[in-house]
Amino acid sequence: MTTMKPNVSWLTDVSVFAVNRLPAHSDHRYYETLEEAEKEAPMALRHSLNGSWKFAYSVKPADRPALFHEADYDCNGWSSIEVPGHIQLQGFGKPQYVNTMYPWDGHNEIRPPAIPEDHNPVGSYVKYFSVPGNMQGKPVYLSFQGVESAFYLWLNGQFVGYSEDSFTPSAFDLTPFLVEGENKLAVEVYQRSTGSWLEDQDFWRFSGIFRDVYLYTVPSVHVSDLFVHAELDQAYKNGQLRVDLKLAGEQPSSVTMTLKDADGQVVATGKAESFEDGKTVVSMDAGHVTPWSAEKPYLYMLYISVFDSEGNLVEAVPQRVGFRNFEMIDKVMHLNGKRIVFKGVNRHEFNSRRGRSITKEDMLWDIATLKRNNLNAVRTSHYPNQSLWYELCDIYGVYVIDEMNLETHGSWQKMGAVEPSWNIPENKPEWQPIVMDRAISMVERDKNHPSILIWSVGNEAYAGEVLLNVSHYFRETDPSRLVHYEGVFHNRTYDATSDMESRMYAKPADIEEYLNADPQKPYISCEYMHAMGNSVGGMHKYTELEQKYPMYQGGFIWDYIDQVIVKKDRYGKEFLAFGGDFDDRATDYNFCTNGIVFADRKESPKMQEVKFLYQNIKLIPDRSGVKIINENLFEGTDAYDLVIALHLEGKEVFRSSQSIAVDAQSEAYVELKLPITDEPGEYVIHASLHLKEGTLWANAGHETSFGQYVFVTESNHVEVQQEGSLRVVQGDVNIGVHGRDFSIMFSKQAGTLISVNYAGREMIAIPPAPLFWRATTDNDKGFALGFDSGAWFAASLTRKCTSVQLVEEAGNATVTFDYRLSISADVQVSVAYTVKPDGSLNVKSRYAGVEGLPKLPIFALSFKVPADYCHLDWYAMGPEENYIDRAFGARLGEFQNDAADNVSGYVVPQESGNRTGVRRVSVSNDYGQGIRITAPANQPVECNISPYTAFELESAYHHYELPNVHYTVITVAGRQMGVGGDDSWGAPVHDEYLIPANQELTFEFNIQRL
Fold first, then answer.
1. Rounded to whole angstroms, how far apart are CA atoms 377 and 358?
2. What confidence tens digit (pLDDT) does each residue in 525-569 have?
3. 168 touches 28 (CB < 8 A)
4. H/E segment holding residue 482
5. HSE of 385 in the Cβ direction (CA atoms, 13 Å)?
6. Which of 48, 168, 270, 759 would bridge with 441, disulfide CB 3.0–4.6 Å?
7. Would you please indicate which residues are annotated as catalytic (active-site) residues?
8. Could you tell me whether strands 552-558 and 523-530 are parallel, antiparallel, or unpaired per DSSP bridges?
């Protein structure tokens, strides 16, 4: 242990990042008896210091209580704070969200390693404790699992140590400083340090002790570190286990090892009786083993028993073991001999109330959500996660890119432009130790998790010798894994840093260009499908590459969960706050809202598409059977039932279930025996796979795969003219069309339909009007849709009716309105309403294409009904919202919701709730009264039924800014443009999902009473 006097200058000294910190080691558990180890009980040799601590907050170092660590310093009058937790989420200071720029940008003109002196919040923590009885007379250590970003540590007034690196453990030996009875632990946490220059990730800037803190002791002989090498032979059938052990304490007499399978049967045993410098290696032949994969995460349990010099058992270590080989074969990444495709997501640790101080319950929900939705991989963006997460990935079966805590984005990229004039760490040798320390801390802790296939050098730190050396360290220390780094894309001099070509937000065409140019490395998108707000359109263009190019090996969606924080508005009501809502400046506002999961841990509608496009087993039904393509690498279909459901006009008329046997990497055609489908109408065959038995992550019956086939049996029936008569009244201002118990009114003055009254119930609250604008999505704003197509906004608000025509024929009455728009004198829009004797209306809308105008966001007709009519019964594509470029995961069927449900939880209000393929939707009140909108199956429409207009949504920055609900807004569209998702800062929606202004557009639908 080094005796040093602490100095605040360490905060800006790149060479000082760990003082008296114990070496990093594996995250194994250990016990004093084998019985405890077998139960995996809470460790008796650990004692948690989580809970309430005394706390003082200072805005800058000069204001801190500098002597608070002294034994006789009275802290009783201080506030309290919960550990683990962030300082800024417990009433001290304020959180700040920035993406690429450093948080002090515009406030302090500094360069690394300098840090702001006027604003560097300091948290002074004090915890009083007594040494637990089972630790008396033994060495006592203290472990911080995560402290942001630098801290000094004292015990009973004596300086213990110092550490940086917010996301890996820091442990210290307290033994020399302990006293009998009560001990005073003092921790001084700084938000800014040299490490802050290396922690410029796209996240909220917090500080504090945000992960667990605990005391621990060790037996007289202790496994201080172990490295399990569990590999397969060349046939991927037999396992070889090698365990590297480091022991501390007294000289042991022996160490024995027993490997057991999942049923508790002994597979192999080993023993070590000679030790050199406390080290030994034990090898065992495990014979035929079950390999580990995400499809079948089979784990063995290794029990390590340590005996002291007298032959007494003093320590028992349980260690999960997964046998698997991950390797590059012919320029393609393989797991256990099979080409792997990552169907992944980037995941920040986040909880909307606790920030990055997430709970076990959060992690259990997350891991099950990944599995239920066919995600097989996660990238720990951009820092090592809590140890429990890797354990869950081992157990549940999720592949991991483990990323070291490094991002220096603001040092080389400014507002999107690459400008590395003062990039760190680049080729600066003085930064090598502090960067390498982060790599070592990650590898040493996480090396025994079979779920980790790839070590990542970090994120968005440009390139240079420092990072290249880190990649060499990874390979030399652990040849069983590959190394990832995207940043070399910007500087190919250091291309050797990464074993794979990794890019962010490359367009599908760019990816194909790479794959068609004799590439030397396999390709992954470490970030793609920027899921900000209403997004993930066009994802199929990426997943379609999986089977087209062997060297395309998948990608990781950005990202998993919205990083937003629960806050109260001025009226005391909670809302979800993003950057800027805490008066934090600089800020990047709502750029933190990119999750396929909402901040309250509810799946967003985007997940419907992700689940479908990530499914490993594809189902392609037709009228005779189902083609089953099993793209699993190892597992067949034995775990599933194939369920077939036949629907006629949305109603189920047949269902069957059967077991199927389709091996991995094969396909089969299963013939179906369906009932005769000669009754006229639209049929849908739904084919789906469901779990036969429950798993850790889903109950029995959970659907994992889905496919559908739609066909129509035509009718020979000749439509009979409706009986009944209409009374048409041509007034000076209005045209009235009246039947036995209904009244339809059109206004020549207003230039539209103004009344649909069924049996005394008025359905039109605000008349219909052509609509060419949608509430802009985050992606729309990113590629400047408002700038390019904003004229359609004005065109939707104002129009001039140029003619009204009434035609009476064959018992029907048709009123046609022609419109001119301010956007161009050449634009012609017409809406024709045909009233039939039963009171139903046929509505036809037409837009004549015009050259030289910007693309249309939507072509629709929108009107309002009273808010009481809010219950919706759909026969359309669903059940979740969908768009023309995000409808692969939707299915045609009947489903129900309310208008309010269609305002999705995107943090900034925007277009949401749309349904494509709408054949019918009923809009009713609590008594079942209302209207039904229908369209023919061969010309379905899109519908968005919401409490708000596009303009109300457009004008609101937060949901609490939306007005009180007075109407249900019904928008029927012939076509709405896609939502896109390649990125959120300039990538347009793909051409085939746009609406050019120079094409003619028409659609029609019917309105009838319920």
1. 20
2. 999 999 999 999 999 999 999 999 999 999 999 999 999 999 999
3. no
4. strand 482-484
5. 26
6. 168
7. 460, 527
8. parallel
